[in-house]
Amino acid sequence: MSGQSQRLTVVPTVTMLGMMKARLVGATRGHALLKKKSDALTVQFRLILKKIVSTKESMGDVMKTASFALTEAKYVAGENIKHVVLENVQNASLKVRSRQENIAGVKLPKFEYFTDGETKNALTGLARGGQQVQLCRAANVKAIEVLVELASLQTSFLTLDEAIKTTNRRVNALENVVKPRLENTISYIKAELDELEREDFFRLKKIQGYKKRAIEKQRETAKQFAEEQVAEKVSLQKGISINAAHSMLSAAAEKDEDIIF
């Protein structure tokens, strides 16, 4: 874009220059802070991405173990183990709660599981297969833990991704639009103020010239008036005309000048 389009339309005054400089300082500080925020969010984004990859890699093994444990429990305790477990369960023992974690001003949702109350189906499969049922329960609890962690990481990942995009847009706007526009405006105001200063200097020189010529003209007028008064006085004393008196005074002045020379 050209400098004309990158410049704000302002009145070139000293006050406006100060305002533009203050805005430029604020834009520079804001750009630095947003850049630091973007870097911090990017670091956290990469850490979360690594955790997501490792969690997904471990999730396959955990889910496979839970599936095999369920198959083993059904094999040992029978196919009706599902109905027995559901009859003994009244409320969920594992629950998930949400909280927020602040990372460089961005609130990331965090999910964590907790145990609420005692396990009601501890005696399930007491007749046969009780140990396999407990192993199946432990394997599925581990799977739930991994799923809750993965859900928390992926939610934070999406939130951070949107926050980084927004922050980077602001950083680019400050760096490529706002700051160049303010700098061009400051340069324009300085150039206009320099031009006005040169015009004022030229105007003062012209005014001084006019005053000097006026003073010289006044002096010449005063000198002519004095000569007229002297010539008139001489003409009255000598009884001669004004022109003759002027000639006499001119000759006397030239004679004096010759003597001085």
UniProtKB/TrEMBL annotation:
<protein>
    <recommendedName>
        <fullName>V-type proton ATPase subunit D</fullName>
    </recommendedName>
</protein>
<keyword id="KW-0813">Transport</keyword>
<keyword id="KW-0406">Ion transport</keyword>
<dbReference type="Pfam" id="PF01813">
    <property type="entry name" value="ATP-synt_D"/>
</dbReference>
<dbReference type="InterPro" id="IPR002699">
    <property type="entry name" value="V_ATPase_D"/>
</dbReference>
<dbReference type="GO" id="GO:0046961">
    <property type="term" value="F:proton-transporting ATPase activity, rotational mechanism"/>
</dbReference>
<comment type="similarity">
    <text>Belongs to the V-ATPase D subunit family.</text>
</comment>
